[in-house]
Amino acid sequence: MNQFQHDLSQVSAFDGADALSKYRKSFHIPIIDGKEVIYFTGNSLGLQPKGVREAINQELDDWAKWGVEGHFHAKNPWFSYHELFTAGAARLVGAKENEVVLMNGLTVNLHLLLTSFYRPTKARFKILCEKKAFPSDQYALESQIKLHGLSLEDALIEVGPREGSDIIATEDILAAIEAHGDELACVMIGGVNYYSGQVFDMKTITAAAHKVDAYCGFDLAHAAGNIPMQLHDWNVDFACWCTYKYLNSGPGSISGAFVHERNGVDKNLPRMAGWWGHDKDERFLMEPGFRPIPGAEGWQLSNAPVLAMTAHKVALDLFDEVGMSALREKSLKLSDYLMFEIDRISAKLRKGRLEIITPREHDARGSQVSVVAHGFGKALFDQLTKEGVIADWREPNVIRMAPVPFYNSFEDIYRFAEILEAACEA
């Protein structure tokens, strides 16, 4: 990280050479108290693409013009609307087109997938996950275990960081999988940990789970649109993600789901069924007997929520235009620079300390940088907010920041560093 200096001229040169800087104009940057904020919460809610309003108005106009006939005559027919996302979503997560579908909300999809891939038996009944998983994942796993009449104490295995660390060692996950192999039914981990920003080695973890004949899946809420992935090649069994964080698709927007093709063609795999997952050629015959569409589409329940999906189409088109490789390259440089500035400020402090708990290695982190504010407390975070920095706080004393390559600049980080240093000194 010694390539960096706290130097506005250097920062301006970085921004001037940045081929992605033009995309900042494609997003609405919030203005609060009359000034443009420094927005570092793409890990919580991404900013609105400017094309969203026009796209939603198109669907509203078609609804007004066509009524129900919009399912077939709208500019983007609603009957097959979810298919507009297939190719882009597959490229985003490294999948085949028949392995992805957009539907429902994130935790709904997680439950639907666990219904298929957590099938406990008397011998195999345990789920392995990371300790301090996002609460919604914890609740989903707990409730799935209880629905099968099992106890958390017997069925849930949580692998946590070693003492003195906030990072979970891959070898500890692999050791736990091996130790519980004969009893393990499913491994389900967040691809990127929401608290520390750690990226898990999904390929290696999947291979270890399969070695003991367990299914393996991931919640990609903090991974999709953040890091490149190859879910098909990694042989991941299932995965799901939201689209409102790094994918900039609006609050509570639609979720994605991945089912590996070897599982998607298995019509005998148990699942919760709905009419939109039924054979397309026979869907409107309204006959009894569920016959799932081969692939991930067979997990659909209901027809597409078009208005919610519209924003996602605008955002996904931007990802297709730029590509994850270019976004990742800038993302790493942004987070490298952010880490440099935090280290620089912490080294100068007369009291207190700023400790970065996010891994330094490029392959072990995404955009997010998590910092423990030792000796400061939430007052420091509140001061940052007052000065126009939109980050987020996680108890007991962690500030999470995620500079996003689409709309954050190197100057954003420079300005943030000026604010942070003054707030710490104050």
Q: Overview of this structure, please?
A:
37% of the residues lie in helices and 14% in strands. The protein is built from 14 helices and 15 strands. It has 426 residues and is of the alpha/beta class. Helix 9 (202-211) links the parallel strand 7 and strand 8 (215-219).
Mean pLDDT: 96
Q: What is the percentage of strand-forming residues?
A: 5-15%
Q: What's the number of helices?
A: 14
**Order of strands in the sheet with most strands:** 4-10-9-8-7-5-6
The assembly state of the depicted protein chains is single chain
Question: What descriptors fit this protein?
Answer:
alpha/beta; Aspartate Aminotransferase, domain 2; four-stranded antiparallel sheet; 426 residues; seven-stranded mixed sheet
List the helices and strands and how they pair.
Elements (H helix, E strand, L loop, with lengths): L7 H9 L14 E2 L2 E2 L1 E2 L12 H15 L3 H4 L12 H8 L6 E3 L3 H12 L8 E5 L4 H13 L4 H4 E4 L10 H10 L4 E7 L11 H10 L3 E5 L18 E5 L12 E5 L1 H4 L41 H17 L1 H25 L4 E4 L12 E6 L3 H9 L2 E2 L1 E3 L3 E4 L8 H16 L1
Parallel strand pairs: 3-13, 5-6, 5-7, 7-8, 8-9
Antiparallel strand pairs: 1-2, 4-10, 9-10, 11-12, 12-15, 14-15
Helix pairs in contact: 2-11, 4-11, 5-6, 8-9, 12-14
Summarize the model shown:
The mean pLDDT is 96. This protein has 14 helices and 15 strands.
